[in-house]
Design goal:
Layout: E1 25-26, E2 30-34, H1 41-49, E3 67-73, E4 76-82, H2 100-127, E5 130-136, H3 142-151, E6 158-163, H4 171-174, E7 185-187, H5 196-205, E8 213-214, E9 222-228, H6 234-242, E10 260-266, E11 269-275, H7 288-299, E12 306-312, H8 319-330, E13 335-340, H9 349-362, E14 371-373, H10 382-396, H11 402-415, E15 428-435, E16 440-445, H12 453-466, E17 475-480, H13 485-490
Parallel strand pairs: 2-4, 2-5, 5-6, 6-7, 9-11, 9-12, 12-13, 13-14, 16-17
Antiparallel strand pairs: 1-8, 3-4, 10-11, 15-16
């Protein structure tokens, strides 16, 4: 077993290659963090990523799907992955407050889910360039011993780190792991940062960066957030589009907890799809873990370009779908309503029209949003879905010249003059676009507080229909100004 201070320099150091964190790199080595549940894998992942991405909670088994991202470790770019805990035992006490039959169903579904998590972790270990095995200084368990045995075929790419040794705590216990014969063993504290720098140096010393190169300067990827209630097929859709099994798929509601990123390319455009946890009514959210999962899912609305709102065609619409839609609308995010599992429904255009009418009635303020029928399981409707997504992305990033805007505004005012009375008198002066994604405009008026909401709605409709923004929400703000467009234009 090597000592920390004997770590050789990174293989790339002789070539004097430096990496710029502000740039994009490809062909990165894959570093997989693995271990049994609750040893601190997600905490270590977040520390290396320098932000909270993976959910951390004392509850064992919080992470299920692999969570990944690009991290700069000791100045070197790596593809870092956090995996679900390697779990051999099952909690026989789970669900004791339920009836016997309910306990059996819960135990079977949970055990099956644990098996899926372990299978996914094993799959990632085979793909890894380096395995960072995280252990808990406080105790050695049969799961640790079984996992070490499982790693023997990959021994040449294993680094062991013993966590929870901050300030020398549990150090004597931690060295008990030396009996397994690890080539590298580092004592760390993921939460407090102890010995993270030596561990980082150890990681890069074991990796080959010769194939890493700077990515092409291309258009930014389209970020797609997949939202909906639990069990609507979000993970199945993500796997279908990425042609991978990145997200674990099971009938067990609430399988996905973290936001799982996948990448794919469609019609020459790079896309990032964000598979999120199912969003249930607040009254049904009992666990802290689910609370954080739902918050992460909602936060993706601030980070995405397009929203896929999945609706189970078998179960139909629910009030929760309406709330998710409202959250996206408030942020000005374009939405595609996806009627998934359409292969289980009656075929024909009449059935589709009826389902679309139901959506239009429930989501009145979003009657411009496209509706696409799909079967993520069979792959039906994927081309139409992605063609629609590209169209919405183009619209939400469209910028319209101020002169064209005000020519259109003049026409609207002539065809449909603003209402006027003794108590409600105002003049609309000019309009300008102030942002894209979300698309937002400002209209200047003499008395903006007097402009009725009905007229604001009319202007929004005209903006969408006449300016090529017919499938996305637009945000419109009114501000006070007595300056005319001609005066404003003269100062440009």
């Amino acid at each position: 077993m090597k000592k920390i201070q004997d770590a050789p320099s990174a293989r790339i150091s002789d070539e004097k290659i430096k990496f710029d964190p502000s740039k994009n790199y490809v062909n990165l080595p894959l570093v997989v963090i693995a271990g049994r549940p609750n040893v601190g894998k997600s905490t270590l992942f977040n520390r290396f990523m320098h932000k909270r991405i993976a959910i951390t909670d004392p509850t064992p088994g919080v992470t299920r799907d692999p969570i990944e991202g690009t991290a700069f470790i000791a100045g070197m770019p790596v593809h870092l992955m956090d995996t679900g805990g390697f779990k051999l035992t099952r909690d026989e006490r789970e669900g004791k407050s339920q009836g016997a039959s309910q306990r059996r169903v819960h135990k079977i579904s949970t055990n099956t889910l644990d098996d899926l998590v372990v299978a996914k972790t094993v799959e990632m270990l085979q793909k890894a360039d380096l395995i960072l095995l995280l252990l808990d200084a406080e105790e050695t368990t049969p799961e640790d011993e079984e996992f070490v045995a499982l790693l023997r075929p990959h021994w040449h790419k294993v680094i062991a780190a013993v966590n929870k040794t901050e300030g020398g705590r549990n150090e004597a216990l931690a060295w008990n792991y030396a009996r397994f014969g690890f080539e590298d063993l580092v004592l760390i504290s993921a939460e407090h940062g102890d010995n993270i720098t030596p561990l980082a140096q150890k990681i890069v010393s074991r990796l080959d960066f010769s194939k890493v190169k700077e990515g092409e300067e291309d258009s930014p990827p389209i970020r797609i957030a997949v939202l909906g209630k639990p069990n609507t097929g979000k993970s199945t859709l993500t796997n279908r589009l990425t042609h991978t099994e990145s997200s674990i798929v099971s009938d067990y509601a609430g399988t996905t907890r973290d936001v799982v990123e996948g990448t794919f390319r469609y019609n020459g455009r790079d896309c990032i799809i964000l598979d999120t946890a199912g969003i249930r009514r607040k009254a049904k959210v009992k666990e802290n873990v689910e609370y954080y999962s739902v918050n992460r899912a909602i936060k993706t609305l601030d980070e995405c370009d397009v929203v896929f709102l999945l609706i189970d065609a078998q179960e139909g619409l629910a009030e929760q779908d309406k709330k998710i839609c409202a959250l996206a609308y408030e942020r000005g995010r374009p939405i595609i309503f996806i009627l998934n599992k359409w292969d289980t429904q009656e075929k024909g255009r009449a059935a589709a029209r009826k389902a679309e009418e139901d959506i239009r009635i429930m989501f009145g303020q979003m009657n411009f949003a496209p509706i696409v029928e799909t079967s993520a399981l069979n792959g039906d409707g994927m081309k139409r879905l992605m063609d629609t997504a590209l169209e919405l992305y183009e619209q939400v990033n469209r910028r319209i010249e101020t002169s064209a805007l005000n020519n259109a505004l003049r026409d609207w005012l002539q065809k449909y003059p603003p209402p006027a009375s003794r108590t409600m008198h105002f003049k609309i002066r000019y309009m300008t676009q102030i942002g894209t994604s979300p698309v937002s405009f400002v209209i200047f008026a003499t008395r903006p507080e007097s402009v009725p909401q009905t007229y604001i709605a009319f202007l929004k409709n005209r903006i969408r229909e006449d300016l090529g923004l017919d499938k996305i929400p637009v945000q419109l703000e009114l501000k006070a100004s007595r300056k005319k467009w001609e005066d404003f234009k003269g100062n440009l």
